[in-house]
Write a structure and sequence with these properties.
The protein is built from 4 helices and 6 strands; from the N terminus they run H-E-E-E-E-H-E-E-H-H. A 6-stranded antiparallel beta sheet has the order 1-2-3-4-6-5.
Length: about 110
């Protein structure tokens, strides 16, 4: 998957936005809460995962616990370019849904979720 494909897929999700944080990270958010992030070059990808996906991906070695966010079940992939686009799109949708579900009811309504 390319960084452009990732951005297009992430921003196609309801209420999604992108911003640069910490000077070097492209962060995808819904309602102000992050659901995915990449470095500015788009090489690394980190996403919020379900408990089961987190365990499967980290135990198999496909991904690794994301620095500073592993306790929240975030997985980091070292090379976005080798990941299957359809699989990443599914992960983005799930990450978006997990984060959106934790937003206050009023915020979800504002975003049309």
């Amino acid at each position: 998957m390319t960084p452009a494909q990732l951005e297009k897929a992430a921003l196609a999700l309801p209420g999604a936005d992108v911003s640069i944080k910490w000077g070097a990270d492209r962060c995808y958010t819904v309602g102000g809460k992050m659901f995915a992030a990449t470095d500015l070059e788009g090489r690394h990808l980190s996403l919020k995962m379900t408990d089961i996906a987190y365990e499967a991906l980290t135990e198999s070695g496909r991904g690794k616990p994301a620095p500073y966010a592993a306790r929240f079940k975030w997985v980091m992939f070292e090379d976005l370019a080798v990941l299957d686009a359809a699989e990443v799109q599914d992960w983005l949708k799930t990450a978006h849904q997990l984060v959106a579900a934790g937003l206050p009811k009023k915020k979800r309504a504002e975003l049309g979720l």
